[in-house]
Write a structure and sequence with these properties.
The chain is mostly beta strands. It has a single domain, classed as Trefoil (Acidic Fibroblast Growth Factor, subunit A) (Trefoil). Helices cover about 5% and strands about 40% of the residues. About 10% of the residues have low confidence. Pfam families: MIR. This is MIR domain-containing protein. Keywords: Repeat, Signal.
């Protein structure tokens, strides 16, 4: 699976995107910028949680860029066509390119905000389970409180949310929930923001595709 990710990025690579109105497509590998914090990006690493879902990979937000997430079809469904546009309202998986772990959530409490759900990296070589599924919600350009899913594609310029299908919680983060020595003793993630699942759609749950490798048929 890792080989598929690497090969697809190089063989079908269209261009590096630095803005504009490009469409996010199946197989594209993208940065995901958190809009409420402004300068933080979705990140994962080889580090694992020692509590909660012990052994699952840590997912945070960080100001350091470069973490790419590959857009894939939902778990246990027919593979999407590489380069095919992703529609608003589609159920997808996001696989961390460097570690091949899928963005995942479940009912385990998050480490800092215990009323929220934990978000982790899960699986092996891109293979996980149904709790890796997220529904893409595109937001209306003039009113971010409204979704804009009807027949539209995921545009790079669009603000989006990710609804976890299994828990009905939204991918979210806040600058108020930052890891430090007091709440995460000797952790390798000091200065990074907790990522969790929240029960209601909020400003804290808005993301945007940023730089990355965007593929086409």
């Amino acid at each position: 699976m890792l080989g598929y990710i690497v090969i697809s990025l190089f063989i079908y690579c269209w261009k590096m995107v630095y803005g504009g109105r490009s469409i996010v497509t199946c197989g594209s590998a993208i940065e995901l910028r958190h809009m409420d914090s402004g300068k933080y990006y979705l990140k994962s690493s080889q580090h694992k949680w020692a509590h909660g879902s012990s052994g699952q990979q840590i997912v945070t937000l960080d100001t350091i860029r470069g973490d790419l997430w590959q857009v894939r079809e939902a778990h246990n469904t027919t593979a999407c066509v590489t380069g095919a546009p992703i529609k608003c309202g589609d159920v997808i998986r996001l696989t961390h390119v460097r570690t091949s772990k899928n963005l995942h959530s479940h009912g385990v409490p998050s480490p800092l905000t215990r009323t929220n759900n934990e978000v982790t990296g899960f699986g092996s070589d891109g293979i996980g389970d149904f709790m890796d599924n997220w529904k893409l919600e595109c937001l209306h350009r003039k009113d971010e409180t409204k979704h804009d899913n009807d027949g539209h594609y995921w545009n790079v310029s669009s603000f989006v949310r990710f609804l976890h299908v299994g828990t009905r919680h939204w991918l979210s983060s806040s600058v108020k929930n930052k890891f430090n020595e007091q709440n995460c003793h000797r952790c390798p993630i000091h200065g990074e923001l907790e990522v969790s699942g929240v029960p209601t759609a909020e400003k804290s749950s808005v993301f945007k595709a940023d730089e990355g490798v965007y593929l086409r048929v």
